[in-house]
UniProtKB/TrEMBL annotation, chains A, B, C, D:
This is Acyl-CoA thioesterase. Coiled coil: none annotated. GO terms for molecular function: fatty acyl-CoA hydrolase activity. It comes from Microvirga thermotolerans. It comes from the Bacteria.
Length: 160, 160, 160, 160
Protein backbone atom coordinates (compact mmCIF):
# COMPACT_ATOMS: atom_id res chain seq x y z
CA UNK A 1 0.00 0.00 0.00
CA UNK A 2 1.43 3.35 -1.04
CA UNK A 3 -0.12 5.32 1.78
CA UNK A 4 2.41 5.98 4.58
CA UNK A 5 1.57 3.86 7.59
CA UNK A 6 1.04 6.68 10.08
CA UNK A 7 -1.21 8.57 7.73
CA UNK A 8 -3.26 5.48 7.04
CA UNK A 9 -3.65 4.87 10.77
CA UNK A 10 -4.67 8.47 11.40
CA UNK A 11 -7.16 8.26 8.55
CA UNK A 12 -8.61 5.06 9.92
CA UNK A 13 -9.04 6.56 13.35
CA UNK A 14 -10.68 9.69 11.96
CA UNK A 15 -12.89 7.55 9.81
CA UNK A 16 -13.88 5.27 12.66
CA UNK A 17 -14.61 8.18 14.96
CA UNK A 18 -16.65 9.91 12.26
CA UNK A 19 -20.29 10.94 12.38
CA UNK A 20 -22.95 8.29 12.79
CA UNK A 21 -26.16 8.63 10.73
CA UNK A 22 -29.00 10.20 12.72
CA UNK A 23 -31.25 7.23 11.97
CA UNK A 24 -28.86 4.65 13.43
CA UNK A 25 -30.16 2.56 16.30
CA UNK A 26 -28.50 3.39 19.61
CA UNK A 27 -28.34 1.80 23.03
CA UNK A 28 -26.74 2.78 26.29
CA UNK A 29 -24.30 0.43 28.02
CA UNK A 30 -23.09 0.94 31.60
CA UNK A 31 -19.39 0.41 32.31
CA UNK A 32 -19.29 -2.03 35.21
CA UNK A 33 -16.67 -2.56 37.88
CA UNK A 34 -16.00 -5.96 36.35
CA UNK A 35 -15.29 -4.43 32.94
CA UNK A 36 -12.30 -2.61 34.37
CA UNK A 37 -8.80 -3.75 35.02
CA UNK A 38 -6.06 -2.88 37.52
CA UNK A 39 -5.26 0.14 35.35
CA UNK A 40 -8.74 1.38 36.35
CA UNK A 41 -10.07 1.45 32.79
CA UNK A 42 -12.10 -0.91 30.66
CA UNK A 43 -10.17 -4.05 29.74
CA UNK A 44 -10.14 -4.31 25.94
CA UNK A 45 -11.49 -7.86 25.73
CA UNK A 46 -14.51 -6.76 27.75
CA UNK A 47 -15.36 -4.23 25.05
CA UNK A 48 -15.70 -7.04 22.57
CA UNK A 49 -17.98 -8.90 24.97
CA UNK A 50 -20.00 -5.72 25.46
CA UNK A 51 -20.34 -5.48 21.68
CA UNK A 52 -21.99 -8.85 21.44
CA UNK A 53 -24.65 -7.71 23.88
CA UNK A 54 -25.20 -4.61 21.74
CA UNK A 55 -25.62 -6.85 18.70
CA UNK A 56 -28.19 -9.02 20.50
CA UNK A 57 -30.27 -5.98 21.41
CA UNK A 58 -29.88 -4.47 17.94
CA UNK A 59 -31.23 -7.69 16.45
CA UNK A 60 -34.32 -7.76 18.64
CA UNK A 61 -35.00 -4.02 18.92
CA UNK A 62 -33.99 -2.64 15.52
CA UNK A 63 -34.13 -5.64 13.19
CA UNK A 64 -37.00 -7.49 14.83
CA UNK A 65 -35.01 -10.74 14.65
CA UNK A 66 -34.74 -13.03 17.66
CA UNK A 67 -30.98 -13.51 18.05
CA UNK A 68 -31.28 -16.37 20.55
CA UNK A 69 -33.87 -18.21 18.50
CA UNK A 70 -31.60 -17.90 15.44
CA UNK A 71 -28.76 -19.63 17.25
CA UNK A 72 -30.87 -21.97 19.37
CA UNK A 73 -33.85 -23.30 17.46
CA UNK A 74 -32.73 -22.31 13.95
CA UNK A 75 -29.16 -23.58 14.47
CA UNK A 76 -27.76 -20.63 12.53
CA UNK A 77 -24.48 -19.32 13.82
CA UNK A 78 -23.92 -15.56 14.01
CA UNK A 79 -20.21 -15.59 14.72
CA UNK A 80 -17.50 -13.26 13.48
CA UNK A 81 -15.00 -13.74 10.69
CA UNK A 82 -13.29 -10.54 11.70
CA UNK A 83 -13.45 -8.14 14.63
CA UNK A 84 -11.43 -5.04 15.26
CA UNK A 85 -11.61 -1.89 17.28
CA UNK A 86 -9.80 1.38 17.72
CA UNK A 87 -9.76 2.52 21.32
CA UNK A 88 -9.89 6.29 21.18
CA UNK A 89 -10.30 7.27 24.82
CA UNK A 90 -10.27 5.17 28.00
CA UNK A 91 -13.61 4.04 29.47
CA UNK A 92 -14.07 4.33 33.23
CA UNK A 93 -16.29 2.63 35.82
CA UNK A 94 -19.66 4.31 35.93
CA UNK A 95 -19.49 5.65 32.38
CA UNK A 96 -22.58 5.18 30.29
CA UNK A 97 -21.56 4.52 26.70
CA UNK A 98 -23.87 5.25 23.82
CA UNK A 99 -23.36 2.58 21.17
CA UNK A 100 -24.66 3.10 17.63
CA UNK A 101 -24.78 0.46 14.90
CA UNK A 102 -24.11 1.25 11.23
CA UNK A 103 -24.33 -1.33 8.48
CA UNK A 104 -21.46 -1.07 6.03
CA UNK A 105 -22.09 -3.98 3.67
CA UNK A 106 -24.64 -6.76 3.29
CA UNK A 107 -22.96 -9.72 1.59
CA UNK A 108 -24.20 -13.11 0.49
CA UNK A 109 -23.44 -14.84 3.78
CA UNK A 110 -21.88 -12.02 5.72
CA UNK A 111 -22.62 -8.66 7.21
CA UNK A 112 -20.09 -5.93 7.83
CA UNK A 113 -21.06 -3.34 10.38
CA UNK A 114 -19.64 -0.79 12.74
CA UNK A 115 -20.35 0.08 16.31
CA UNK A 116 -19.40 3.53 17.56
CA UNK A 117 -19.29 4.07 21.31
CA UNK A 118 -19.21 7.50 22.83
CA UNK A 119 -19.49 9.17 26.22
CA UNK A 120 -21.54 12.26 25.52
CA UNK A 121 -19.82 13.81 22.49
CA UNK A 122 -16.52 12.07 23.06
CA UNK A 123 -15.74 8.96 20.98
CA UNK A 124 -14.54 6.11 23.19
CA UNK A 125 -14.09 3.32 20.69
CA UNK A 126 -15.12 2.31 17.20
CA UNK A 127 -15.37 -1.27 16.06
CA UNK A 128 -15.80 -2.97 12.71
CA UNK A 129 -17.21 -6.46 12.72
CA UNK A 130 -17.78 -9.01 9.98
CA UNK A 131 -20.50 -11.44 10.98
CA UNK A 132 -20.94 -14.63 8.98
CA UNK A 133 -24.03 -16.80 9.06
CA UNK A 134 -23.11 -20.45 9.43
CA UNK A 135 -24.75 -23.81 9.91
CA UNK A 136 -24.10 -24.85 13.50
CA UNK A 137 -24.00 -28.44 12.31
CA UNK A 138 -21.20 -28.02 9.78
CA UNK A 139 -19.70 -24.68 10.89
CA UNK A 140 -19.74 -23.67 7.20
CA UNK A 141 -21.13 -20.40 5.94
CA UNK A 142 -24.70 -20.33 4.65
CA UNK A 143 -26.56 -17.51 2.87
CA UNK A 144 -28.04 -14.85 5.14
CA UNK A 145 -31.54 -16.09 6.05
CA UNK A 146 -34.21 -14.19 4.10
CA UNK A 147 -35.80 -12.55 7.13
CA UNK A 148 -32.42 -11.32 8.35
CA UNK A 149 -31.48 -9.97 4.90
CA UNK A 150 -34.80 -8.16 4.55
CA UNK A 151 -34.46 -6.65 8.03
CA UNK A 152 -30.90 -5.51 7.30
CA UNK A 153 -32.01 -3.86 4.06
CA UNK A 154 -34.82 -2.05 5.86
CA UNK A 155 -32.37 -0.93 8.55
CA UNK A 156 -29.89 0.25 5.89
CA UNK A 157 -32.62 2.37 4.29
CA UNK A 158 -33.75 3.80 7.61
CA UNK A 159 -30.21 4.98 8.39
CA UNK A 160 -29.79 7.00 5.19
CA UNK B 1 -8.54 2.45 -1.88
CA UNK B 2 -8.40 1.14 -5.45
CA UNK B 3 -8.23 -2.51 -4.52
CA UNK B 4 -11.65 -4.23 -4.80
CA UNK B 5 -13.04 -4.95 -1.35
CA UNK B 6 -13.19 -8.73 -1.64
CA UNK B 7 -9.67 -8.95 -2.94
CA UNK B 8 -8.39 -6.75 -0.15
CA UNK B 9 -10.11 -8.95 2.42
CA UNK B 10 -8.69 -12.10 0.85
CA UNK B 11 -5.24 -10.52 0.80
CA UNK B 12 -5.53 -9.53 4.44
CA UNK B 13 -6.53 -13.03 5.43
CA UNK B 14 -3.71 -14.60 3.42
CA UNK B 15 -1.31 -12.10 4.90
CA UNK B 16 -2.50 -12.69 8.45
CA UNK B 17 -2.37 -16.43 8.08
CA UNK B 18 1.09 -16.27 6.52
CA UNK B 19 4.29 -17.88 7.74
CA UNK B 20 5.65 -16.95 11.14
CA UNK B 21 9.43 -16.53 11.50
CA UNK B 22 11.10 -19.64 12.91
CA UNK B 23 12.66 -17.58 15.70
CA UNK B 24 9.33 -16.26 16.99
CA UNK B 25 8.43 -17.09 20.59
CA UNK B 26 5.55 -19.54 20.86
CA UNK B 27 3.28 -20.73 23.63
CA UNK B 28 0.50 -23.27 23.84
CA UNK B 29 -2.94 -22.25 25.08
CA UNK B 30 -5.67 -24.77 25.93
CA UNK B 31 -9.20 -24.03 24.76
CA UNK B 32 -11.35 -24.29 27.86
CA UNK B 33 -15.02 -25.16 28.27
CA UNK B 34 -15.58 -21.60 29.45
CA UNK B 35 -14.03 -20.17 26.28
CA UNK B 36 -16.80 -21.72 24.23
CA UNK B 37 -20.31 -20.54 23.53
CA UNK B 38 -23.65 -22.23 22.82
CA UNK B 39 -22.48 -22.65 19.23
CA UNK B 40 -19.84 -25.00 20.69
CA UNK B 41 -16.90 -22.93 19.48
CA UNK B 42 -14.67 -20.30 21.05
CA UNK B 43 -16.50 -17.05 21.73
CA UNK B 44 -14.64 -14.27 19.92
CA UNK B 45 -14.24 -11.98 22.95
CA UNK B 46 -12.54 -14.83 24.79
CA UNK B 47 -9.86 -14.95 22.10
CA UNK B 48 -8.95 -11.38 22.92
CA UNK B 49 -8.75 -12.25 26.60
CA UNK B 50 -6.60 -15.25 25.73
CA UNK B 51 -4.30 -12.91 23.77
CA UNK B 52 -3.60 -10.80 26.82
CA UNK B 53 -2.41 -13.89 28.66
CA UNK B 54 -0.13 -14.69 25.72
CA UNK B 55 1.27 -11.15 25.90
CA UNK B 56 1.94 -11.49 29.64
CA UNK B 57 3.90 -14.69 29.12
CA UNK B 58 5.72 -13.29 26.09
CA UNK B 59 6.84 -10.34 28.22
CA UNK B 60 8.23 -12.52 30.99
CA UNK B 61 9.54 -15.45 28.94
CA UNK B 62 10.79 -13.84 25.71
CA UNK B 63 11.41 -10.21 26.63
CA UNK B 64 12.49 -10.70 30.22
CA UNK B 65 10.17 -7.88 31.33
CA UNK B 66 7.86 -8.29 34.32
CA UNK B 67 4.45 -7.34 32.90
CA UNK B 68 2.75 -7.16 36.28
CA UNK B 69 5.51 -5.07 37.83
CA UNK B 70 5.29 -2.67 34.87
CA UNK B 71 1.60 -2.06 35.51
CA UNK B 72 1.69 -2.38 39.30
CA UNK B 73 4.83 -0.85 40.75
CA UNK B 74 5.96 1.15 37.71
CA UNK B 75 2.46 2.48 36.99
CA UNK B 76 2.99 2.09 33.26
CA UNK B 77 -0.08 1.06 31.32
CA UNK B 78 0.25 -1.53 28.57
CA UNK B 79 -3.18 -1.13 27.04
CA UNK B 80 -4.24 -1.27 23.41
CA UNK B 81 -4.96 1.56 21.00
CA UNK B 82 -6.14 -0.96 18.46
CA UNK B 83 -6.96 -4.65 18.41
CA UNK B 84 -8.24 -6.76 15.57
CA UNK B 85 -8.39 -10.36 14.56
CA UNK B 86 -9.36 -12.50 11.61
CA UNK B 87 -10.97 -15.75 12.67
CA UNK B 88 -9.92 -18.29 10.10
CA UNK B 89 -11.22 -21.54 11.52
CA UNK B 90 -13.39 -22.26 14.58
CA UNK B 91 -11.67 -23.26 17.82
CA UNK B 92 -13.16 -26.14 19.81
CA UNK B 93 -13.05 -27.25 23.45
CA UNK B 94 -9.95 -29.26 24.10
CA UNK B 95 -7.93 -27.72 21.27
CA UNK B 96 -4.43 -26.68 22.11
CA UNK B 97 -3.57 -23.54 20.17
CA UNK B 98 -0.01 -22.62 19.38
CA UNK B 99 0.33 -18.84 19.59
CA UNK B 100 3.34 -17.08 18.07
CA UNK B 101 4.25 -13.42 18.52
CA UNK B 102 5.75 -11.31 15.74
CA UNK B 103 6.77 -7.68 16.20
CA UNK B 104 5.72 -5.51 13.28
CA UNK B 105 6.77 -2.04 14.37
CA UNK B 106 8.43 -0.45 17.39
CA UNK B 107 7.21 3.15 17.68
CA UNK B 108 8.01 5.97 20.07
CA UNK B 109 5.31 5.08 22.56
CA UNK B 110 3.67 2.17 20.82
CA UNK B 111 4.30 -1.34 19.67
CA UNK B 112 2.53 -3.07 16.81
CA UNK B 113 2.61 -6.83 16.86
CA UNK B 114 0.81 -9.89 15.60
CA UNK B 115 -0.23 -13.09 17.22
CA UNK B 116 -0.86 -16.11 15.02
CA UNK B 117 -2.76 -19.01 16.52
CA UNK B 118 -2.81 -22.43 14.92
CA UNK B 119 -3.95 -25.96 15.68
CA UNK B 120 -1.19 -28.09 14.26
CA UNK B 121 -0.66 -26.70 10.76
CA UNK B 122 -4.07 -25.11 10.54
CA UNK B 123 -4.37 -21.37 11.19
CA UNK B 124 -7.16 -20.61 13.66
CA UNK B 125 -6.91 -16.87 14.03
CA UNK B 126 -4.49 -14.03 13.45
CA UNK B 127 -4.52 -10.83 15.44
CA UNK B 128 -2.85 -7.46 15.10
CA UNK B 129 -2.49 -5.38 18.24
CA UNK B 130 -1.20 -1.88 18.84
CA UNK B 131 -0.05 -1.51 22.43
CA UNK B 132 0.61 1.96 23.81
CA UNK B 133 2.60 2.69 26.92
CA UNK B 134 0.79 5.18 29.14
CA UNK B 135 1.11 6.79 32.52
CA UNK B 136 -1.51 5.19 34.75
CA UNK B 137 -1.83 8.52 36.55
CA UNK B 138 -2.71 10.61 33.51
CA UNK B 139 -3.75 7.88 31.02
CA UNK B 140 -1.59 9.71 28.45
CA UNK B 141 0.99 7.99 26.29
CA UNK B 142 4.61 7.99 27.42
CA UNK B 143 7.71 6.82 25.53
CA UNK B 144 8.39 3.09 25.63
CA UNK B 145 10.50 2.50 28.76
CA UNK B 146 14.17 1.92 27.83
CA UNK B 147 14.29 -1.66 29.08
CA UNK B 148 11.16 -2.57 27.13
CA UNK B 149 12.47 -0.92 23.96
CA UNK B 150 15.81 -2.70 24.23
CA UNK B 151 14.09 -6.03 24.83
CA UNK B 152 11.81 -5.50 21.83
CA UNK B 153 14.76 -4.68 19.61
CA UNK B 154 16.58 -7.81 20.73
CA UNK B 155 13.44 -9.86 20.09
CA UNK B 156 13.04 -8.30 16.65
CA UNK B 157 16.61 -9.28 15.77
CA UNK B 158 16.17 -12.81 17.10
CA UNK B 159 13.14 -13.35 14.87
CA UNK B 160 14.88 -12.45 11.63
CA UNK C 1 -23.46 -30.58 62.90
CA UNK C 2 -26.05 -33.17 63.90
CA UNK C 3 -28.33 -32.62 60.94
CA UNK C 4 -27.88 -35.34 58.28
CA UNK C 5 -26.08 -33.95 55.26
CA UNK C 6 -28.81 -34.53 52.69
CA UNK C 7 -31.46 -33.00 54.88
CA UNK C 8 -29.31 -29.97 55.52
CA UNK C 9 -28.75 -29.53 51.80
CA UNK C 10 -32.45 -29.86 51.05
CA UNK C 11 -33.22 -27.34 53.80
CA UNK C 12 -30.65 -24.93 52.43
CA UNK C 13 -32.11 -25.14 48.96
CA UNK C 14 -35.66 -24.66 50.23
CA UNK C 15 -34.49 -21.77 52.33
CA UNK C 16 -32.58 -20.15 49.50
CA UNK C 17 -35.48 -20.52 47.11
CA UNK C 18 -37.93 -19.16 49.69
CA UNK C 19 -40.13 -16.08 49.44
CA UNK C 20 -38.53 -12.68 49.01
CA UNK C 21 -40.03 -9.73 50.95
CA UNK C 22 -42.41 -7.68 48.83
CA UNK C 23 -40.41 -4.53 49.59
CA UNK C 24 -37.12 -5.92 48.25
CA UNK C 25 -35.51 -4.04 45.39
CA UNK C 26 -35.62 -5.97 42.11
CA UNK C 27 -33.95 -5.65 38.74
CA UNK C 28 -34.20 -7.57 35.50
CA UNK C 29 -31.10 -9.09 33.92
CA UNK C 30 -31.04 -10.49 30.39
CA UNK C 31 -29.26 -13.79 29.80
CA UNK C 32 -26.84 -13.12 26.96
CA UNK C 33 -25.34 -15.46 24.38
CA UNK C 34 -21.98 -14.89 26.03
CA UNK C 35 -23.30 -15.99 29.43
CA UNK C 36 -23.93 -19.46 28.05
CA UNK C 37 -21.63 -22.38 27.55
CA UNK C 38 -21.42 -25.30 25.12
CA UNK C 39 -24.07 -27.03 27.25
CA UNK C 40 -26.38 -24.22 26.10
CA UNK C 41 -27.04 -22.93 29.62
CA UNK C 42 -25.58 -20.16 31.72
CA UNK C 43 -22.01 -20.86 32.79
CA UNK C 44 -21.88 -20.71 36.60
CA UNK C 45 -19.02 -18.21 36.84
CA UNK C 46 -21.02 -15.81 34.69
CA UNK C 47 -23.79 -15.81 37.29
CA UNK C 48 -21.34 -14.46 39.84
CA UNK C 49 -20.29 -11.75 37.40
CA UNK C 50 -23.95 -10.97 36.78
CA UNK C 51 -24.42 -10.64 40.53
CA UNK C 52 -21.83 -7.91 40.80
CA UNK C 53 -23.74 -5.88 38.24
CA UNK C 54 -26.90 -6.37 40.29
CA UNK C 55 -25.04 -5.13 43.37
CA UNK C 56 -23.83 -2.02 41.53
CA UNK C 57 -27.36 -1.12 40.48
CA UNK C 58 -28.76 -1.93 43.92
CA UNK C 59 -26.25 0.47 45.44
CA UNK C 60 -27.17 3.32 43.14
CA UNK C 61 -30.90 2.70 42.75
CA UNK C 62 -31.97 1.37 46.16
CA UNK C 63 -29.29 2.57 48.56
CA UNK C 64 -28.47 5.86 46.88
CA UNK C 65 -24.74 5.11 47.18
CA UNK C 66 -22.39 5.58 44.22
CA UNK C 67 -20.64 2.19 43.99
CA UNK C 68 -17.98 3.40 41.57
CA UNK C 69 -17.20 6.51 43.57
CA UNK C 70 -16.82 4.36 46.69
CA UNK C 71 -14.16 2.23 45.00
CA UNK C 72 -12.62 4.96 42.86
CA UNK C 73 -12.47 8.27 44.72
CA UNK C 74 -13.12 6.98 48.24
CA UNK C 75 -10.70 4.04 47.88
CA UNK C 76 -13.05 1.76 49.76
CA UNK C 77 -13.11 -1.81 48.55
CA UNK C 78 -16.44 -3.63 48.30
CA UNK C 79 -15.10 -7.12 47.72
CA UNK C 80 -16.41 -10.42 48.99
CA UNK C 81 -15.21 -12.56 51.89
CA UNK C 82 -17.59 -15.27 50.86
CA UNK C 83 -19.80 -16.00 47.88
CA UNK C 84 -21.99 -18.98 47.24
CA UNK C 85 -24.95 -19.93 45.14
CA UNK C 86 -27.38 -22.78 44.69
CA UNK C 87 -28.32 -23.30 41.06
CA UNK C 88 -31.91 -24.46 41.11
CA UNK C 89 -32.84 -24.50 37.44
CA UNK C 90 -30.74 -23.88 34.31
CA UNK C 91 -30.78 -20.42 32.75
CA UNK C 92 -31.08 -20.17 28.96
CA UNK C 93 -30.16 -17.56 26.35
CA UNK C 94 -32.88 -14.98 26.09
CA UNK C 95 -34.21 -15.50 29.61
CA UNK C 96 -34.89 -12.39 31.61
CA UNK C 97 -34.05 -13.04 35.24
CA UNK C 98 -35.63 -11.05 38.03
CA UNK C 99 -33.03 -10.53 40.75
CA UNK C 100 -34.10 -9.42 44.23
CA UNK C 101 -31.75 -8.32 47.01
CA UNK C 102 -32.39 -9.15 50.69
CA UNK C 103 -30.13 -7.98 53.50
CA UNK C 104 -29.46 -10.71 56.04
CA UNK C 105 -27.02 -9.07 58.44
CA UNK C 106 -25.31 -5.70 58.79
CA UNK C 107 -22.00 -6.24 60.61
CA UNK C 108 -19.27 -3.87 61.76
CA UNK C 109 -17.30 -4.08 58.54
CA UNK C 110 -19.34 -6.56 56.58
CA UNK C 111 -22.70 -7.04 55.00
CA UNK C 112 -24.38 -10.38 54.39
CA UNK C 113 -27.05 -10.41 51.75
CA UNK C 114 -28.88 -12.68 49.37
CA UNK C 115 -29.83 -12.39 45.76
CA UNK C 116 -32.68 -14.51 44.46
CA UNK C 117 -33.03 -14.87 40.71
CA UNK C 118 -36.18 -16.19 39.11
CA UNK C 119 -37.73 -16.57 35.68
CA UNK C 120 -41.35 -15.71 36.24
CA UNK C 121 -42.33 -17.77 39.29
CA UNK C 122 -39.54 -20.28 38.88
CA UNK C 123 -36.43 -19.90 41.05
CA UNK C 124 -33.25 -20.08 38.95
CA UNK C 125 -30.56 -19.49 41.52
CA UNK C 126 -30.09 -18.11 45.00
CA UNK C 127 -26.85 -16.60 46.21
CA UNK C 128 -25.52 -15.54 49.58
CA UNK C 129 -22.71 -13.00 49.61
CA UNK C 130 -20.63 -11.53 52.39
CA UNK C 131 -19.23 -8.17 51.35
CA UNK C 132 -16.45 -6.62 53.41
CA UNK C 133 -15.48 -2.97 53.28
CA UNK C 134 -11.73 -2.59 53.01
CA UNK C 135 -9.12 0.07 52.57
CA UNK C 136 -7.80 -0.24 49.03
CA UNK C 137 -4.42 0.93 50.30
CA UNK C 138 -3.94 -1.78 52.92
CA UNK C 139 -6.54 -4.38 51.78
CA UNK C 140 -7.62 -4.60 55.44
CA UNK C 141 -11.23 -4.37 56.58
CA UNK C 142 -12.54 -1.03 57.74
CA UNK C 143 -15.90 -0.21 59.39
CA UNK C 144 -18.81 0.22 57.01
CA UNK C 145 -18.83 3.90 56.01
CA UNK C 146 -21.59 5.82 57.84
CA UNK C 147 -23.58 6.64 54.71
CA UNK C 148 -23.53 3.03 53.57
CA UNK C 149 -24.58 1.77 57.02
CA UNK C 150 -27.44 4.26 57.23
CA UNK C 151 -28.61 3.36 53.73
CA UNK C 152 -28.49 -0.36 54.55
CA UNK C 153 -30.53 0.18 57.71
CA UNK C 154 -33.13 2.15 55.78
CA UNK C 155 -33.25 -0.59 53.16
CA UNK C 156 -33.61 -3.26 55.84
CA UNK C 157 -36.58 -1.39 57.31
CA UNK C 158 -38.19 -0.89 53.91
CA UNK C 159 -38.06 -4.64 53.23
CA UNK C 160 -39.92 -5.65 56.38
CA UNK D 1 -28.87 -23.59 64.14
CA UNK D 2 -27.70 -23.35 67.76
CA UNK D 3 -24.15 -22.39 66.93
CA UNK D 4 -23.64 -18.60 67.17
CA UNK D 5 -23.31 -17.14 63.71
CA UNK D 6 -19.82 -15.69 64.07
CA UNK D 7 -18.43 -18.87 65.54
CA UNK D 8 -19.94 -20.93 62.74
CA UNK D 9 -18.37 -18.63 60.17
CA UNK D 10 -14.98 -18.80 61.88
CA UNK D 11 -15.25 -22.57 62.02
CA UNK D 12 -16.14 -22.75 58.34
CA UNK D 13 -13.18 -20.60 57.39
CA UNK D 14 -10.80 -22.64 59.54
CA UNK D 15 -12.22 -25.80 58.10
CA UNK D 16 -11.93 -24.58 54.52
CA UNK D 17 -8.39 -23.38 55.02
CA UNK D 18 -7.42 -26.66 56.68
CA UNK D 19 -4.79 -29.15 55.60
CA UNK D 20 -5.09 -30.81 52.23
CA UNK D 21 -4.18 -34.53 51.98
CA UNK D 22 -0.65 -35.08 50.70
CA UNK D 23 -1.95 -37.29 47.90
CA UNK D 24 -4.30 -34.66 46.47
CA UNK D 25 -3.71 -33.62 42.88
CA UNK D 26 -2.38 -30.08 42.55
CA UNK D 27 -1.94 -27.61 39.74
CA UNK D 28 -0.51 -24.14 39.50
CA UNK D 29 -2.59 -21.29 38.12
CA UNK D 30 -1.14 -17.88 37.23
CA UNK D 31 -3.09 -14.78 38.27
CA UNK D 32 -3.46 -12.75 35.09
CA UNK D 33 -3.90 -9.02 34.59
CA UNK D 34 -7.39 -9.77 33.31
CA UNK D 35 -8.31 -11.62 36.50
CA UNK D 36 -7.88 -8.44 38.49
CA UNK D 37 -10.21 -5.54 39.05
CA UNK D 38 -9.79 -1.81 39.67
CA UNK D 39 -9.12 -2.67 43.31
CA UNK D 40 -5.96 -4.37 41.98
CA UNK D 41 -6.95 -7.81 43.26
CA UNK D 42 -8.59 -10.84 41.70
CA UNK D 43 -12.25 -10.25 40.89
CA UNK D 44 -14.27 -12.92 42.69
CA UNK D 45 -16.19 -14.15 39.64
CA UNK D 46 -12.87 -14.82 37.91
CA UNK D 47 -11.93 -17.23 40.69
CA UNK D 48 -14.96 -19.34 39.82
CA UNK D 49 -13.94 -19.30 36.18
CA UNK D 50 -10.40 -20.27 37.19
CA UNK D 51 -11.88 -23.18 39.16
CA UNK D 52 -13.52 -24.63 36.09
CA UNK D 53 -10.15 -24.74 34.36
CA UNK D 54 -8.72 -26.53 37.38
CA UNK D 55 -11.55 -29.07 37.17
CA UNK D 56 -10.87 -29.68 33.48
CA UNK D 57 -7.22 -30.40 34.13
CA UNK D 58 -8.03 -32.50 37.19
CA UNK D 59 -10.32 -34.64 35.03
CA UNK D 60 -7.70 -35.26 32.38
CA UNK D 61 -4.58 -35.42 34.53
CA UNK D 62 -5.78 -37.06 37.75
CA UNK D 63 -8.94 -38.91 36.78
CA UNK D 64 -7.98 -39.86 33.24
CA UNK D 65 -11.38 -38.69 31.98
CA UNK D 66 -11.70 -36.45 28.93
CA UNK D 67 -13.80 -33.53 30.21
CA UNK D 68 -14.45 -32.09 26.76
CA UNK D 69 -15.40 -35.43 25.27
CA UNK D 70 -17.83 -35.98 28.15
CA UNK D 71 -19.64 -32.75 27.37
CA UNK D 72 -19.17 -32.82 23.60
CA UNK D 73 -19.50 -36.32 22.21
CA UNK D 74 -21.08 -37.99 25.26
CA UNK D 75 -23.56 -35.14 25.82
CA UNK D 76 -23.14 -35.41 29.58
CA UNK D 77 -23.29 -32.12 31.43
CA UNK D 78 -20.84 -31.47 34.25
CA UNK D 79 -22.44 -28.36 35.66
CA UNK D 80 -22.80 -27.23 39.25
CA UNK D 81 -25.78 -27.46 41.57
CA UNK D 82 -23.91 -25.43 44.13
CA UNK D 83 -20.73 -23.39 44.24
CA UNK D 84 -19.28 -21.41 47.07
CA UNK D 85 -15.98 -20.00 48.16
CA UNK D 86 -14.40 -18.29 51.13
CA UNK D 87 -11.88 -15.68 50.09
CA UNK D 88 -9.20 -15.73 52.76
CA UNK D 89 -6.56 -13.42 51.37
CA UNK D 90 -6.53 -11.22 48.25
CA UNK D 91 -4.89 -12.56 45.09
CA UNK D 92 -2.64 -10.23 43.12
CA UNK D 93 -1.43 -10.04 39.52
CA UNK D 94 1.55 -12.27 39.02
CA UNK D 95 0.71 -14.62 41.88
CA UNK D 96 0.95 -18.29 41.13
CA UNK D 97 -1.76 -20.13 43.03
CA UNK D 98 -1.44 -23.78 43.92
CA UNK D 99 -4.86 -25.39 43.64
CA UNK D 100 -5.54 -28.78 45.23
CA UNK D 101 -8.65 -30.89 44.70
CA UNK D 102 -10.21 -32.98 47.49
CA UNK D 103 -13.25 -35.17 46.98
CA UNK D 104 -15.75 -34.87 49.82
CA UNK D 105 -18.61 -37.07 48.68
CA UNK D 106 -19.42 -39.25 45.67
CA UNK D 107 -23.22 -39.38 45.27
CA UNK D 108 -25.50 -41.15 42.85
CA UNK D 109 -25.52 -38.36 40.29
CA UNK D 110 -23.41 -35.77 42.05
CA UNK D 111 -19.94 -35.13 43.28
CA UNK D 112 -19.02 -32.81 46.12
CA UNK D 113 -15.45 -31.60 46.15
CA UNK D 114 -13.24 -28.82 47.43
CA UNK D 115 -10.52 -26.78 45.85
CA UNK D 116 -7.99 -25.09 48.10
CA UNK D 117 -5.86 -22.35 46.59
CA UNK D 118 -2.73 -21.09 48.27
CA UNK D 119 0.22 -18.84 47.55
CA UNK D 120 3.12 -20.67 49.12
CA UNK D 121 1.87 -21.54 52.60
CA UNK D 122 -0.80 -18.87 52.68
CA UNK D 123 -4.38 -19.90 51.93
CA UNK D 124 -5.97 -17.61 49.35
CA UNK D 125 -9.37 -19.15 48.90
CA UNK D 126 -11.24 -22.37 49.49
CA UNK D 127 -14.19 -23.49 47.42
CA UNK D 128 -16.78 -26.21 47.75
CA UNK D 129 -18.51 -27.34 44.59
CA UNK D 130 -21.33 -29.76 43.93
CA UNK D 131 -21.18 -31.05 40.38
CA UNK D 132 -24.16 -32.89 38.95
CA UNK D 133 -24.05 -35.11 35.88
CA UNK D 134 -26.93 -34.32 33.54
CA UNK D 135 -28.22 -35.25 30.15
CA UNK D 136 -27.56 -32.31 27.87
CA UNK D 137 -30.72 -33.20 25.97
CA UNK D 138 -33.10 -32.99 28.93
CA UNK D 139 -30.98 -31.03 31.46
CA UNK D 140 -32.03 -33.63 34.06
CA UNK D 141 -29.59 -35.40 36.36
CA UNK D 142 -28.33 -38.83 35.35
CA UNK D 143 -26.22 -41.29 37.35
CA UNK D 144 -22.49 -40.63 37.36
CA UNK D 145 -21.10 -42.50 34.32
CA UNK D 146 -19.33 -45.70 35.39
CA UNK D 147 -15.88 -44.63 34.22
CA UNK D 148 -16.18 -41.34 36.09
CA UNK D 149 -17.39 -43.06 39.26
CA UNK D 150 -14.55 -45.59 39.15
CA UNK D 151 -11.99 -42.83 38.57
CA UNK D 152 -13.38 -40.81 41.47
CA UNK D 153 -13.20 -43.81 43.79
CA UNK D 154 -9.59 -44.46 42.78
CA UNK D 155 -8.78 -40.80 43.36
CA UNK D 156 -10.51 -40.87 46.75
CA UNK D 157 -8.36 -43.86 47.78
CA UNK D 158 -5.18 -42.26 46.53
CA UNK D 159 -5.80 -39.17 48.67
CA UNK D 160 -6.14 -41.07 51.94
Amino acid sequence: MAVPRETAAAARRRDLAGPVPAGAWRTEVPVRFSHCDPAGIVYFARYFDMLNGVVEDWFSEALGIDYHDMIGRRRTGLGFASAGAEFLSPGFMGDRLTCAVTVERIGRSSLTFRIHASRGDEPVFAARLVMVTTSLDTHRSIPLPDDLRAALERYWESCK
